Amino acid sequence: MKTTPKIFYRQIGEIVFSSKPGRFVPKIFVVGDNIDPSDLHEVVWAEATKSPPQDSDFFFVGNYPIYKLVPYATYGLNTNEPQAKVVRLCMLPGEFKTLDRPWVEASFRSSFPEQIKKKVLESWQAYGYKTRDPLNI
């Protein structure tokens, strides 16, 4: 991406939270290109492994419209203060400097050769699991 996390989160937050549809969006999870954002398992994995507490949350407070039916906006700790919106980066700093990843992903899909993965998947139900996919247990 050849940018910095600070520039990237600021651009995303400004564009989304300043827009009319952005009033319905309290949080944005930003994941890398190796994560399928439509797969909740992968998003949770990215958030748990690539998002250090406090360093990955970027708050937007102020002139960003909110939707009053979002419970935290009207029933939060202090309803008189403007409510914050957040962009959470679920990416490592290295993903911003270069497209080359200096790390190896520790997961079933990337840590084993294809022949081993195929053998495990073919025998998955014989191991006593109901689904065929070990990623969706």
Detailed description of the structure:
It is a single chain. The chain is 34% helix and 11% strand. With 137 residues, it is of the alpha+beta class. It has one domain (5-100): UbiD C-terminal domain-like (3-Layer(aba) Sandwich), CATH 3.40.1670. The longest helix is centred in the N-terminal third of the chain and has 13 residues, at 5-17. The radius of gyration is 19 Å and the shape is elongated.
Protein traits:
single chain; 3-octaprenyl-4-hydroxybenzoate carboxy-lyase-like C-terminal domain-containing protein; 6 helices; UbiD-like_C; 137 residues; alpha+beta; UbiD C-terminal domain-like; 34% helix; 3-stranded mixed beta sheet
Tell me what portion of residues adopts beta-strand conformation: 5-15%
How many helices? The count is 6
CATH class wording:
Alpha Beta
Total count of domains: 1
**Could you name the CATH topology?**
UbiD C-terminal domain-like
InterPro entries: UbiD-like_C (IPR049381)
Protein name: 3-octaprenyl-4-hydroxybenzoate carboxy-lyase-like C-terminal domain-containing protein
Pfam families: UbiD_C
Organism: Exophiala spinifera
